[in-house]
C-alpha cells in the first residue's frame, strides 16, 4: 500500500453525521465544594501540563475538512483535562505571552506531523492582539515553520475589539507577517463595536461570526440578519466567513443557505486531543473528491484581498 498523498482530498463525509458522538467526555474533577478548579498558567508551563487540542473546521459548501483551530488545554495530574476557563482568567501578560509562544511553536510542529500522515491542514490559533504585537513572530516562524512546500500558512485569530484598538499597527503587522505565511482572522465578529470604516482598513483573511449570533440563526430573525450581513461583508472584503460555535443542525443548514464558507462547533465535532484528531482524520479519509479551498485560496479571488494577508 502506497503512502497517502498530502495533496489529495480528505472528505468529511457530511458535517452532521455525528462525527463527535464517540468522542470521550473531558473529565474535570470539581474542587472546593463543586467549583471549577483554577490553575495558574505559570505553574502549568513549569510542569509541562499544556496540550494543544484541535477542533475541525469544515468547508460548508463542499462538506469536507478545511482545517482546524488549535486550542489550549491543561492536563492536570489531579483534575484531569481543563478548559481555558480554568486557567486564562486573570492571567498575567508575561504568562499569556509565554503560553501563546509555546502554542504557536507546537501548532507549527503539529502541522508537520499531520503532513507526514498525509493530511495538509490549514491550522488556526487564537492569539491576543496585545501579545501578537509583542511576540517575535517572524523569528519564531523562520525557526519552526514547516519546510514542506505544501504548507498553506497559519491563521492567527484575534478579537475585533483587540485589533481595532490599534488598526494601523495591526495593518502594519499583517503586511509583515504575510511574507512568513501568517494571516489574521477577526474572531468574535459582531460582539465588538467595529465600524465599517475600521473594518475597511483592517487586514484579515477570515471573519469569524460570534457564536452568540450563530446560535439560533435558523429561527431568530435578528441573528439570521446579522449572520447574513457578516457573511456578505466578509465576501465583499475578499475574506472567508466562518461560523463559530455551531451547536444545532438547523443553524448549520441555515448558514449553508446563507453562503457561509466554513463552520466549526459541537454539531460538527468537538475539540479533541491531537492523537484523537489524527485518528479521526484517518477514519474519514476519502481520496476521491477535489481538494477543498482553504481560506488562503478564498482570498485569492479578490484584487483587494491580494493586498491583504495571504
Structure description:
The protein is α/β, with parallel strands linked by helices. It has a single domain (41-305), classed as EAL domain (TIM Barrel, Alpha-Beta Barrel), CATH 3.20.20.450. It has helices spanning 41-46, 93-116, 129-132, 137-144, 160-164, 167-177, 196-201, 211-214, 221-236, 249-258, 274-283, 295-299, 303-306, and strands at residues 50-59, 64-76, 80-82, 122-126, 154-159, 182-189, 206-209, 240-244, 262-264, 272-273. The protein has an eight-stranded mixed barrel with strand order 1-2-4-5-6-7-8-9. Helix 2 packs parallel to helix 4 (137-144). It is globular, with a radius of gyration of 19 Å.
Per-chain topology:
Elements: H1 41-46, E1 50-59, E2 64-76, E3 80-82, H2 93-116, E4 122-126, H3 129-132, H4 137-144, E5 154-159, H5 160-164, H6 167-177, E6 182-189, H7 196-201, E7 206-209, H8 211-214, H9 221-236, E8 240-244, H10 249-258, E9 262-264, E10 272-273, H11 274-283, H12 295-299, H13 303-306
Parallel strand pairs: 2-4, 4-5, 5-6, 6-7, 7-8, 8-9
Antiparallel strand pairs: 1-2, 1-9, 1-10, 2-3
